[in-house]
Amino acid sequence: MLEVKDVHAGYGNLKILRGINMNVPTGGIVTLLGGNGTGKSTLLKAISGLIPLMQGDVFFNGVNISNMKPHQRMRLGLVQVTQAKEAYPAMTVEENLVLGAYTRRDREGTKADLEKVYEFFPVLRERRKQLSGTLSGGEVQMLVIGRGLMAAPKMLMLDEPSAALAPKVVLEIFANINRIAKSGVTILVVEQNVRMALILAQYGYIIRDGVIMMQGEADNLISDPAVKDSFLGGSVADTSKALRN
Ligand SMILES: Nc1ncnc2c1ncn2[C@@H]1O[C@H](COP(=O)(O)OP(=O)(O)OP(=O)(O)O)[C@@H](O)[C@H]1O
Ligand SMILES: [Mg+2]
After folding, report:
1. Of 28, 43, 69, which is closest to residue 155 (Cα–Cα)?
2. Which residue's alpha carbon is at the smallest distance from atom 16 of ligand 1?
3. Which residues have CB under 6 Å of ligand 1?
4. Given pLDDT bands bounded at 50, 70 and 90, which one contains residue 233?
């Protein structure tokens, strides 16, 4: 569904991504992992068109979208939920959701999708008249994913959906992402919660300093010693020692 070929991108003259190759097949969930500042959000922005490419190409369902504007990519079904979990605080939950459909013309389909979002996230239906500024962190996360769904994605890119949420809420969000994938939306998810992401996804990419340093089936990555050392944390004794240094 998505093919990223030798992508270089960054900000002004500053190059962050240095030759990224990536493939997201139709159906299922792919995760993009890596430490802070390694270029994960930059890669999502390059794919969704929020920043231009310096080199390379992005293909979506065989179409070269490298020079398309973000809203054109959205109309093709490539939708990103950005890392800043921004809902319009002075608007209601439902108004925020409807905004997600701004690139669409099909009123009936939009209405049906609103119903679908409420089925995925019943709490959003309960709170549809509530101002978004008064939602909990977990509810805002559900709202921004729901808003992404309102754009009728074929592929949904999520940037750290578990960030700053309690473990129980993370589990709920991930279960929902799994349900969304099962409903036929391909998912590319950026995560810091490496263990959970590798349990959720079928395939993973690990990025460091703007290059893909490792990739593979999620099951293989989760048991890989290098991944364990770098991302899955050492023993309590190791952590304790590091804390006291
Ligand atoms: N608008 C910007 N202008 C200049 N540099 C930027 C901009 N946005 C990000 N950067 C830099 O690009 C690098 C990669 O940032 P990016 O946001 O892609 O990291 P990330 O992997 O998503 O990290 P995190 O997990 O903390 O979100 C960082 O060094 C960051 O400071
Ligand atoms: Mg980021």
Report:
1. 28
2. 39
3. 11, 14, 16, 34, 36-42, 83, 192
4. low
Distance of CA 64 to the CA centre of its chain: 21
pLDDT band for position 117 (50/70/90)? very high
| Mean pLDDT on 86-109 | 90
What is the three-class DSSP state of 178?
Answer: helix
Atom of ligand 1 nearest to the CA of 83: 27
CA distance 65 to 163: 29
Asked whether 26 and 46 are in contact (CB, 8 A), the reply is no
Helix or strand (DSSP H, E) at 213: strand 211-217
To which H or E segment does residue 122 belong? Answer: helix 122-126
What is the Cα–Cα distance from 174 to 196, expressed in whole angstroms?
8
Residues 103, 151: Cα–Cα separation, whole Å: 7
Between the CA of 40 and the centroid of ligand 1 the distance, in Å, is: 8
Q: Which domains does the chain have, with CATH numbers?
A: 2-244 (3.40.50.300)
pTM value surpassing 0.70: yes
147: its two tokens: 């808003």
